[in-house]
Design goal:
Layout lengths: L7 H11 L4 H11 L2 H18 L4 H8 L3 H13 L3 H6 L2
Helix pairs in contact: 3-5
Length: 92
């Protein structure tokens, strides 16, 4: 668990997310919570992570997602050295 983000406010946010039951619920909540560019950036990073997880090469990821190589590198670092959150999601 990352002490950099853990606090009461983040706990509350994550409890809110855990209460969501459908993709439509997620759309409604996240559209109210975030700006469109924030949602698009998170979605892009999730797709980049899945492609990296599946061993897709950088050039193909750029072509499929439009992500910069800097973004791909950042996501790759999270996959390699992060808290394991991507593994939790992709292994379910």
């Amino acid at each position: 668990m990352s002490s950099r983000i853990k606090d009461e406010n983040t706990d509350f946010l994550f409890q809110c997310i855990l209460n969501l039951k459908s993709v439509d619920d997620c759309y409604a909540f996240f559209e109210d919570l975030c700006t469109v560019p924030e949602i698009k950036a998170m979605a892009q990073r999730a797709v980049v992570a899945k492609l990296l997880y599946d061993k897709t090469v950088y050039n193909d990821i750029v072509a499929k997602t439009g992500a910069s190589t800097a973004t791909i590198s950042r996501v790759n670092r999270s996959l390699a050295y992060g808290a394991g959150g991507y593994d939790l999601v992709f292994n379910k």
